[in-house]
Design brief:
30% of the residues lie in helices and 25% in strands. The protein is α/β, with parallel strands linked by helices. The strands form 4 sheets. A 9-stranded mixed sheet has the order 12-15-18-17-16-19-11-1-20. Strands 3, 4, 5, 6, 7, 8 and 9 form a 7-stranded parallel sheet that branches. It is elongated and about 75 Å long. The chain starts with a strand and ends with a strand. It binds pyridoxal-5'-phosphate. The site of pyridoxal-5'-phosphate has 12 residues, from helix 9 and strand 10.
Length: 368
């Protein structure tokens, strides 16, 4: 962890996003924040108390993430998307013991949860995941009825929810999502009593008919839109900004070059600043020569190749730039050229990947 790099997370932005999203789903639908991968790189340690206060549970990917939430003293609903590894009996038992809601997607997964519940002497609570067209984890819709029956027959496993996941809810073409929704509806049992959920951030914003009993939202809570074409769907505020400091400033003669491959040539006498962040810290190498950082409110283009732990920025036009000045790597202002969504576009990826990568190697700080 590099303590000279800081990701500042705005508590008021997160609370604002949750209140906007709550208004969308209404009072009868639960809001379950998806906090996998350290809250998409925003930092579980600092966001946990905020989210625990204003949401209805948590969803994580890995079993260890679920157990970590329990170790923070959280007693509420936790849904885990992935199972404990098939031969990891210790974690299987721990999930039952700690009352984590596990995902069942096959008969063999059900069997191992049933066995763990017997070993532990406690019933296990599960949600069934149905593959309605995403073609990833989940029981094929045609076999969902059989698996529901098998869960209901098992002595120590209790079915408390059924869910699916959309592959294209963030796209303009609505066909595939409509097909997934129709198929999902067709496999839902007639008797109630289980929590039905399907919507991710994109579906929550664009498909009110997918809200059912609960929505699972990640990216929107952190203030980014799921895709470019959804940019104006809701008044979301990005909550992350990332800062570093200039550690060196020097003059470069016209015609000199910088960085691996000497790809960048200065076409005038220039001043270059060195910033101690690189692709090892999650700043994409593909942003070389593409992105800008901001220093004293001015743009400084990233020039030359981004290295593992440092990069060079052109500060020729920022005449007062000096060692120790703050460098804004990511801006929380959605109209800034270095906002997450813009960096994602320049790097040819999605906002999710930008925040996940940048979050790992730096200090997180909760700010207003
Ligand atoms: C990651 C994930 C989500 C959250 O998706 P967003 O697009 O960030 O809202 C919801 N459901 C499942 C199953 C996921 O894996």
């Amino acid at each position: 962890m590099k303590n000279y790099l800081t990701a500042s997370i705005s508590e008021s932005a997160v609370r604002h996003n949750i209140s906007v999203l709550r208004k969308r789903i209404g009072p009868d639908v639960k809001l379950c924040p998806v906090v996998k991968d350290d809250c998409f790189g925003h930092g579980m340690d600092i966001l946990f108390p905020v989210l625990a206060e204003c949401t209805d549970g948590f969803a994580v990917a890995a079993p260890m993430e679920a157990l970590e939430l329990r170790s923070k003293g959280y007693h509420g609903f936790i849904l885990c998307f992935l199972s404990a590894y098939f031969d990891d009996f210790k974690v299987q038992d721990e999930l039952v013991w700690q009352e984590i809601t596990q995902t069942v997607m096959s008969k063999s997964a059900l069997d191992s949860i049933e066995k763990a519940a017997r070993r532990v002497g406690k019933p296990a609570r599960v949600h069934l995941k149905v593959d309605t067209g995403m073609g990833r984890l989940g029981v094929p819709a045609t076999q969902a009825g059989d698996l529901i029956a098998a869960i209901q027959e098992s002595a120590n496993v209790e079915l408390s929810g059924i869910y699916t996941h959309f592959a294209t809810a963030d796209e303009q073409d609505r066909t595939a999502t409509q097909n997934q929704l129709d198929l999902f509806r067709s496999i839902l049992p007639e008797q109630g009593g289980v929590t039905i959920h399907a919507a991710n951030s994109a579906a929550t914003l664009d498909w009110p008919e997918t809200h059912f009993d609960m929505v699972r939202m990640g990216i929107a809570i952190y203030g980014c839109h799921p895709s470019d074409h959804m940019r104006n769907r809701a008044d979301l505020k990005p909550c992350m900004s990332v800062k570093a400091k200039l550690i060196s400033v020097k003059h470069m003669r016209e015609g000199s070059r910088s960085g691996y491959g000497l790809t960048h040539e200065f076409n005038r006498d220039s001043r270059v600043g060195i910033v101690p962040i690189g692709y090892g810290d999650g700043y994409f190498r593909s942003l070389s020569g593409q992105a800008v950082v901001r220093i004293n409110g001015r743009n400084a283009p990233v020039c030359g190749r981004v290295s593992m732990d440092q990069m060079t920025v052109d500060v020729t036009d920022i005449t007062d730039a000096k060692v120790g000045d703050e460098v804004e790597i990511i801006s929380a202002d959605p109209s800034a050229p270095n906002c997450v969504e813009n960096l994602a576009r320049l790097a040819g990826t999605i906002p999710y990947e930008i925040t996940c990568h940048l979050g790992h190697n730096m200090r997180h700080r909760l700010v207003d």
